[in-house]
Amino acid sequence: MATKNNVVAFQYPRLTKENYDKWSLIMKTVLGAQGFWENVEKGYTEHDVAVMLNQSQKEASQNERKKDKNALMVIHQGLDDDMFKKVANATSSKQAWDTLQKFFEGVSRVKKVRLQNLRGEFKKLEMLDKKSISDYFGRVLNIVNQMKRLGESMQDCRVVEKILHSVNSDFNHVVVVIEELNKDLESMTIDELSGSLQAHEQ
């Protein structure tokens, strides 16, 4: 939180493409603390000007409208320029919130499908004959890095085991030696395995 003249200024969390779940939880708390979350959750509907309201109803309607605009303002405070464009046309806090939710649910589904495809590619990886170790490592790490960017936990030992079990037959005896010398493959790094296999290749 920033301070100015001894007054604490609250810093709203900034929404990014990677932190929607955390951002939405914090913003729900912030909106709730300010008494605005109910407006976001249930929505606010403008009354038809033709509908006759008594003074009490008019005041209640104006109060709800003000709270909704304040809620919308709070949501805007947590967005950068790119994210703001997605809700720029929203006229209520609920509309803005639902728009962001649908967008990130769609992004999440696409990520899940892409990650599932990459898992399949990783499982099917095999070293082609007449290809170098460095070429094969490049193929493996390209897929591994894509999986990591999508949130997959990829420990070195998982990649090491995959490579050892998928190099071509020219490296069979080297694989046996490596596995004998490294009973606990969890302690072997990808770089160490690459060095060992490339040393044999030369």
Structure overview:
The chain has helices spanning 20-33, 37-42, 55-77, 81-87, 93-124, 133-149, 156-164, 172-181, 190-201; strands at 2-4, 7-9. The protein is mainly α. The protein folds into 2 domains: 2-108, no CATH class; 133-201. A two-stranded antiparallel ribbon has the order 1-2. The relative contact order is 0.08.
Descriptors:
rod-shaped; 202 residues; mainly alpha; disordered N terminus; two-stranded antiparallel sheet
Shape: rod-shaped
Strand sequence of the main sheet, in spatial order? 1-2
Overall pLDDT metric: 87
> Which residues form runs of ≥5 with pLDDT under 50?
1-8
Topology pattern, helix = H, strand = E: EEHHHHHHHHH
Structural class: mainly alpha
Number of domains: 2
Distance between the termini: 58 Å
- Counted by DSSP, the helix tally is 9
What is the total tally of β strands?
2
Percentage beta strand: under 5%
Q: What Rg is obtained from the alpha carbons, in whole angstroms?
A: 28 Å
Please estimate the helix content.
55-70%
The largest sheet is:
2 strands, antiparallel
